[in-house]
Amino acid sequence: MKQGSTDDPFADDTATDTDTEETTVADPEATPSQDTTAGGTAEESDAADSDDESGSEPGRLPYIYARDTVKDGRQQRPIFLRDEVEDGIPELVGELEDRFGENVYRTDVMEAAVAVAQEHPDLLEAKLGEWGYGWD
Amino acid sequence: MLAYTVYSEAGGVGKTTLAANLAKAEVRAGRDVLVIDLDTQEASLSHLLDVADRRNDSEADSLLRHMIDRPRGPFEELVRTSEGIDIVPAHNILEYASKHLRRREEEAADFGETFNPNKQLLRVLREAGVHETYDTLIVDPPATADIKLHNAIHTTRHVVIPFEPSGKGYESVQGLDQLVGGLEANLDIEVGVLAVVPNRYKGMNDQDRFLETLQEDGWDIPVTLRERSSMLEGCWAEQCTAYRYVEEHRDRERDHELETLEKLDELAEHIRLQTEVPA
After folding, report:
1. For a tag on chain B, would you pick the N or C end, based on fewer CB atoms within 10 A?
2. B26-61 pLDDT, tens digit each
């Protein structure tokens, strides 16, 4: 407690309200960021490389540390999935948790999957090709 | 938006009357003011400003329902108005705020979500766009240090501390320093003191000594409010601010009461200036 004025938690810049989450998250410094290249497929290591950009700005906490809850600023959207794809999600989340050595939210994984796809349309092109797009 | 919590560890120091009258002073200065009443005592700010009629109604929507994600209507419908002051009144369910917030936290954890029970007032107010609608936010928490106080301080980050100039009062300010220090570490925030306000000052030598000691400790004491028991009792009897009481319920103006009103205006202005100057 000090005399005078301090932070405004209502300020528009979300960075001023970036209290660390009180949940049990592992120290991000301790996360080995390079080991994704070891066993992962090509797609996954690409994804890991591009993930850092929001966290590297000085003075700004990475997204998961800046939010108050996992749903903050997110809209719930219904998506249509075939069983074989949906069944693979828990496995993917588990795989990512093993790599980070910490709890990873399914909600984050799902949005990251879309974000990666937006950054790598070539990967999507290949997958959609498998599904029959581009057949003359 | 200027935001602060009026808080004292010691009870009966005029916390609620100070909060209500500072709110009125802000309205007089032409500002849009919202007061959040988190104190479930019968003699609450909601009672003082005569907006407490739904506090027992279990069908009524309440701020706590919004804080645990179970609102029954839009935030705007929680707001009542008295003497130009917008107020979110206290509802009796706030007594159980801790239980409900903890339960919601556990439920969130079961679904793999995070829910910080200390940050929900800030979330509700931000989502309602309160900082875009109002110039001033004043929170009146209960005198006990519980989850409602944590929410209040997390939301405003600033406190105004009423205190009775006595040995007990002096200790209460020091005790508050420790309490807030603990909260700061707990919530990872920094809390600023906008003013320490001696109330019920009677001009005694030992009272002056305590004021001097507090100033030596580095606290800003912009005004000293003298004992005005008959005016304050009148406010509670008529359920209004001191400004309205003097204007409408006194048959003649008393200079010492007008002087107290001027000091309240002065205090409100001093608080506004504090937050305009970067620390």
Report:
1. C
2. 999 999 999 999 998 888 999 999 999 999 898 899
- Whether residue A22 and residue B126 make contact (CB cut-off 8 A), yes or no, is no
Contact state of A1 with B191 under an 8 Å Cβ cutoff:
yes
Q: What is the assigned CATH class of domain B2-276? A: alpha beta
* Min Cα–Cα distance to chain B from A117, Å: 25
B123 chain-A contacts, CB cut-off 8 A: 68-69
Per the model's pLDDT, the better-predicted residue between A93 and A54 turns out to be A93
Chain A residues lying within 8 Å of B220, measured CB to CB: 3-4
Domain assignments of chain B as residue spans, ordered by start: 2-276
Angle formed at CA A55 by CA A52 and CA A56, multiple of 5 degrees: 85
Which chain B residues are within 8 Å of A103, Cβ to Cβ? 112
In the β-sheet with B80-82, what is the strand arrangement from edge to edge? A2-3, B192-198, B158-163, B2-6, B136-140, B33-37, B85-88, B80-82
What pLDDT shows up at residue B277?
53
Per-domain residue ranges of chain A: 14-130
